[in-house]
């Protein structure tokens, strides 16, 4: 089985897009992440849902989880409001060590290794300078885990 067999059309965002809109897209479509593209439509990063959370959750709550418990429910429920005015660029690492991008001929083991190495739940698939879509962790696991 190859990447082309698991490939699905996948939404993209630009680095300058509002991160709250990216979060809305993640939630509405139940996505693990989004492909961040440049002006030519080619992948430059992956925005995982966890990166949106890392930008939204106050640093003191990340550093000391006990502090998150002292925030009242009303304010805790509104933590995403801190994303107002912020962009996708602020949520993704400035220079990823390795971009989770492959070609349609990649095997499932190559896809799994790339996901594991880059710690991302999706891999962008590019052929001849054109983004074809992505393979998600869910699609990969659905195919490789025995029933």
UniProtKB/TrEMBL annotation:
Keywords: CBS domain. The lineage of its organism: Bacteria, Bacillati, Actinomycetota, Actinomycetes, Streptosporangiales. CDD domains: CBS_pair_bac. It comes from Nonomuraea guangzhouensis. InterPro entries: CBS_dom (IPR000644), Diverse_CBS-Domain (IPR051257). PROSITE patterns: CBS (PS51371). SMART domains: CBS. It comes from the Bacteria. Residues 1-67, 94-147 form the CBS domain. It holds the Pfam family CBS. This is CBS domain-containing protein.
